[in-house]
Amino acid sequence: xxxxxxxxxxxxxxxxxxxxxxxxxxxxxxxxxxxxxxxxxxxxxxxxxxxxxxxxxxxxxxxxxxxxxxxxxxxxxxxxxxxxxxxxxxxxxxxxxxxxxxxxxxxxxxxxxxxxxxxxxxxxxxxxxxxxxxxxxxxxxxxxxxxxxxxxxxxxxxxxxxxxxxxxxxxxxxxxxxxxxxxxxxxxxxxxxxxxxxxxxxxxxxxxxxxxxxxxxxxxxxxxxxxxxxxxxxxxxxxxxxxxxxxxxxxxxxxxxxxxxxxxxxxxxxxxxxxxxxxxxxxxxxxxxxxxxxxxxxxxxxxxxxxxxxxxxxxxxxxxxxxxxxxxxxxxxxxxxxxxxxxxxxxxxxxxxxxxxxxxxxxxxxxxxxxxxxxxxxxxxxxxxxxxxxxxxxxxxxxxxxxxxxxxxxxxxxxxxxxxxxxxxxxxxxxxxxxxxxxxxxxxxxxxxxxxxxxxxxxxxxxxxxxxxxxxxxxxxxxxxxxxxxxxxxxxxxxxxxxxxxxxxxxxxxxxxxxxxxxxxxxxxxxxxxxxxxxxxxxxxxxxxxxxxxxxxxxxxxxxxxxxxxxxxxxxxxxxxxxxxxxxxxxxxxxxxxxxxxxxxxxxxxxxxxxxxxxxxxxxxxxxxxxxxxxxxxxxxxxxxxxxxxxxxxxxxxxxxxxxxxxxxxxxxxxxxxxx
Length: 676
Description:
alpha/beta, 12 strands, Glyco_trans_28_C, Diacylglyc_glucosyltr_N, disordered C terminus, glycosyltransferase, Glycosyltransf_28_UgtP
């Protein structure tokens, strides 16, 4: 058989096909290599860039750690704590700015996240520990500097006394140096010896009496209004409120017979940092454990004058206070203190000046009165046996005063002085209450359903959570109105104003509470309310008792306000539920609103404890005993002029004026009218 060869054209086409396939394969391989090469190079560049970023971050972190470690190595522990606290405060400030910036419902979740971060910073135990360490270091530094300053001042006084004895005959020394006192006339020889042996601060001569009985001096000063200084400090709203109440009571009873001035004594007469007491109080209010330790410090002593805290405070502020009284001692007729840390310093300064003048403090004719503004418990610093009169608001404080050495003859149980809107305890008629509710923006109602929530002047406590819990509970009940007074806590007021409260029923009006800041007409809101939810502040409790409001106490300042809770609960005027459980607070309010008999019973107990005329009684007693302002026309109209006339004649006999001294024509006419 013969083989058949393929045709020539077919072979050429086969070889060309093979060649084309090889060429295509080589092209594909070349492109793939190029792609792989490009991908490899791109990946390498990316890894290199990522490595640079990662290395830069690691280097930056390590550099930052090294810088911080080196900086901290050169800082004391106190400076490190201050740096960390400052950084934390700055971060909190930035977060709060961001929360305030993003308002509206669209940024609700964002705001909640930032608020949670803020709360984490505030609840951080390390930050609290650093703050506590800073306060302890500051206190120890103040103690050390106070003793050093006292030692330095004693050395300067000794050197000055020696120099004065050596240069006493030199006219140049007399003319080149400023006078040591503000005497109006030269001192007697015995007074000079006493002054050289005692303090360089003396009582101005115009403050001293002309004779042994002081009748000439009294006759001279009685031609002008009696000048009264009321000393307080803005460490909380209660001290200023009591000072304003006493001022109003004095003006109401004696008019132009008295000239009253309210003085923030710590800011005016005391040096830094004691002049920053209000700011320190606001800070410590957010750290209850620290405040409790400060309260319990030196409580084992019998008198505040014997404590290290008082000795440090007096030695540090002595010069400043004495300079203040060198200016004002000659002008004043009465000093009233409504703060526990002030009257000791005042009495000490007056005794220092009287010692320099060779007289007793009682001979100065400048009495000092203390009005206690705590209700259920009081700090040791409230009581000083050297003061002329002490006014206490409750039996518990009365017993504490006796325990700490105050004579019973100086103690007066009168109550807590409150603002003028609380001087009347008469219940308001239902019609008038409805009109007042409508005037204040509330819905008039005859059943008890208006809840007043207050957080004190500074707005301490879990005010936000308690307000939300009570509001939600009232929404579920289907009745009730809520008034929230936030005080100076502007952050809580703004948050509650922006909060969306759920409707009671679809298609009906929304539940809208009345959100307020710091208000001056608290008496009107208490009159319009049916129950009060507040912190255990003595002023708020006393005001609620006068208005007959059941009190639900939710928080207290440790030490200072602990006794107020037992005062309310043991007398059946309210209850205590901590604000850490806002749902329980809301449940208690719902229980009260549903039981009108229980609210009526608590209201009666509250009115039984009320003392609405405390401010008028305090001012009447102190002015009648210490200023001799005479009798009041109100008492004359009530037919009590006979006994008062007899008392006035006896007082004038003891003062040496004489029993035959006739009354003024006005008093004689009033006496005849009263006799008829």
